[in-house]
Specification:
By secondary structure, the protein is mainly α. The chain contains 1 helix and no strands.
Length: 65
Amino acid sequence: MSLLKVAAVVVGGIVVFFALDFVVHAIFALLTTLVIVALVAGGGYVVYKVAGGSRRREIRRGQRY
């Protein structure tokens, strides 16, 4: 009976190990995807701002008439 309990604990440990491995892998994959999307979006925003900067109107101070 004692050997059966040891085998059950070992099998349960293996199952928990694989379950935790799956969860940790999924979390890292999600975080990596979010970082890549944030970098691409940030780069696009910078390109938009740099390219849009040349189209700004110049503000002239002084007489209007």
